[in-house]
Design brief:
- By secondary structure, the chain is an alpha+beta fold.
- It has two domains: 1-31; 37-160, Quinohemoprotein amine dehydrogenase alpha subunit, domain 2 (Lipocalin).
- It is built from one helix and nine strands.
- The protein has one helix at residues 2-29, and strands at residues 37-47, 57-67, 70-81, 87-89, 97-105, 113-121, 126-137, 140-147, 152-160.
- Strands 1-2-3-5-6-7-8-9 form an eight-stranded antiparallel β-barrel.
- A hairpin with a 4-residue loop joins strand 6 and strand 7 (126-137).
- The N and C termini lie far apart (64 Å).
Length: 161
């Protein structure tokens, strides 16, 4: 009976120590990145069903809020840069608004990923875009996108302000 009690207590103490060890790893050694804040976002359209948009660069200012691993936010389209270098800067009253939701996929042994779903309330219609991003460091994300806007896809760079 005494030996059984010692085994039970040893198992409980071992479980508590393992839990404490995993908590310290999770909170201090591999802390979760905080993506909340303002992000300067630049997308480059590589492929599109509408040739005038090929190689078009679009800039956005996005605000993300992170709750656990969930992301939400909003933003505005601020500028278009055509392949010939001409720019269209959108004044505040002419900016297209975007709504953002997504999640953060935390990786312990590899690069963490961020998935964002963007709904753009365009002048003619709503479009949907999905960003698949890799966390390079706490201020830089990059990856690819696919969009219903002109059936386009390309690359995305995001820098935290």
């Amino acid at each position: 009976m005494c030996e059984l009690l010692i085994n039970i207590i040893g198992t409980i103490i071992g479980g508590l120590l393992l839990t404490l060890f995993l908590f310290v790893l999770n909170e201090f050694v591999f802390p979760k990145k905080n993506l909340t804040g303002e992000w300067e976002t630049k997308i480059t359209i590589i492929n599109t069903g509408y040739n005038p948009f090929k190689n078009l660069v679009i800039e956005y200012k996005m605000h993300l809020i992170q709750k656990g691993y969930e992301l939400s936010g909003s933003g505005e389209k601020t500028k278009d840069i055509k392949p010939n270098g001409s720019e269209t800067v959108f004044l505040r009253e002419n900016r297209v608004n975007v709504e953002i939701d997504g999640y953060f996929e935390r990786k312990y042994l590899g690069k963490s990923r961020i998935y964002l779903n963007i709904i753009e309330n365009g002048r003619k219609r709503k479009t949907r875009t999905t960003y698949i991003l890799t966390l390079k460091n706490k201020k830089n994300l990059n990856g690819t996108f696919i969009s219903t806007a002109a059936d386009s896809n390309g690359i995305v760079f995001m820098n935290k302000s």
